[in-house]
Amino acid sequence: MKKGICIGSIPGDSTETRFKNAKKAGFDGVEIGPISTEQERIDIKNLATDNGIELCSVMNGKHWSHPLSDADPAVREVSHHAMLNSLATADAIGADTVLLVAAVVNEKTTYEEAYQRSQDEIKKLIPTAKQKNLTIAIENVWNKFLLSPIEFVQYIDEFQSDAVTAYFDVGNIVAYGFPQHWIRSLGHRIAKVHVKGFNANEHRFTYLIEDCTIDWNEVMAALTDVGYDDYMTAELPVGKDDPEGTLHQISEDMSNIIAGNV
């Protein structure tokens, strides 16, 4: 299993410095956000290659501010174009996955509306994803949507396309479920995995091991059971007092989790 980290979790005053710090800390890959121009995409790919870093995935933008589930077609159109940009970015940098928050349920958007609208919009994106040999990976987040593993499986399977998968976030699920259960339910549908810590007793995010109540050995056993052997990508804040030390601690914690030494 490879170790990845989100670019926003890496200390540094430039992209090159962040890539160098990630490599020095023992990470194999970095997840980035969408990039608007082709030249910038080429430049960041070359920068990553020069520093021995793989650009493993792209975290889409706009899906919170302009969700695919919004009642306004103009809002959905913004989100659609943001996804096209993310897919183009992934294609140019050699990543195989784009993370998407599929929908947002709120006081103006019912659960049923979020379900139908988001599926309708994602179906429009599938041809582009397939043409570029990419996957649109739906992440479980605190969006009041897809609140059971059974429903998550159903939602993905209804697309009848291997271009739509799951981006499973271990820490995000602890507030209302057990990650090992969700992993086994989602099975082969999982394209990528995010990790962050969570303390269920105090209902707060943590770093990976300290104050964390996640049973990482059970999580790893579940990932092994479903045959997952791709990136485990950390999504955690940069340490304020010792940013580089925190980065190395995250890497060490991930190595221990993967090795089953927690």
Looking at this protein, list some descriptive labels.
two-stranded antiparallel ribbon; 262 residues; globular; alpha/beta
Protein described:
By secondary structure, this protein is α/β, with parallel strands linked by helices. The protein is 44% helix and 18% strand. It contains nine helices and ten strands. The protein has helices at 15-25, 38-50, 73-93, 111-131, 149-157, 170-173, 179-186, 216-225, 243-259, and strands spanning 2-6, 29-32, 54-59, 97-100, 135-139, 164-169, 190-195, 197-199, 204-206, 231-234. The strands form two sheets. An eight-stranded parallel beta barrel has the order 1-2-3-4-5-6-7-10, surrounded by seven helices. Strands 8-9 form a two-stranded antiparallel ribbon. Helix 1 links the parallel strand 1 (2-6) and strand 2 (29-32). Helix 1 (15-25) packs across helix 9, helix 3 packs parallel to helix 4 and helix 5 (149-157) packs parallel to helix 7 (179-186). The longest helix has 21 residues, at 73-93. The chain is globular, with a radius of gyration of 18 Å.
Mean pLDDT: 97
Measured distance between first and last alpha carbons: 16 Å
What percent of the residues sit in helical stretches (DSSP H or I)? 40-55%
Beta-strand percent range: 15-25%
Structural class by secondary-structure content: alpha/beta
Describe the biggest sheet? Answer: 8 strands, parallel, barrel
Biggest sheet, spatial arrangement of strands: 1-2-3-4-5-6-7-10
Beta strands, count: 10
Radius of gyration (Å): 18 Å
What best-fitting shape do the alpha-carbon axes yield?
A: globular
How large is the count of helical segments?
9
Order of helices and strands: EHEHEHEHEHEHHEEEHEH
In terms of per-residue confidence, which ranges show pLDDT below 50 for 5 or more consecutive residues?
Answer: none
